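We were asked to recover a plausible sequence for a given structure. The inputs and outputs are reproduced exactly as logged, with field labels preserved.

PROBLEM: sequence recovery
POSITIONS: 92
GIVEN STRUCTURE:
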């Protein structure tokens, strides 16, 4: 099974469980049914966003400086400029 199929299967499972709870096919107490179940999608989106922000912050915090890659990139840019000048294209 591919990753996309797994993601779709998991999404459909979660959606069907939520709809069963929302449509009161799975019995809960009235307080849970009226106050918690309707806001679960919003809670899930906010939690997922917080997780992604954490992952982004962690990635920025642990980002390593790579001066060798910077030098290599500048060399590639210079090589591309030379090739374009050889073809008669002005890039300055």
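RECOVERED SEQUENCE:
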């Amino acid at each position: 099974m591919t990753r996309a199929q797994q993601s779709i299967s998991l999404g459909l499972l979660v959606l069907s469980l939520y709809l069963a709870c929302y449509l009161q096919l799975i019995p809960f107490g009235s307080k849970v049914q009226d106050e918690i179940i309707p806001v679960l999608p919003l809670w899930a989106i906010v939690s997922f966003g917080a997780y992604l922000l954490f992952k982004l912050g962690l990635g920025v915090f642990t980002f390593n400086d790579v001066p060798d890659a910077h030098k290599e990139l500048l060399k590639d840019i210079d090589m591309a400029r030379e090739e374009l000048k050889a073809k008669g294209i002005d890039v300055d």
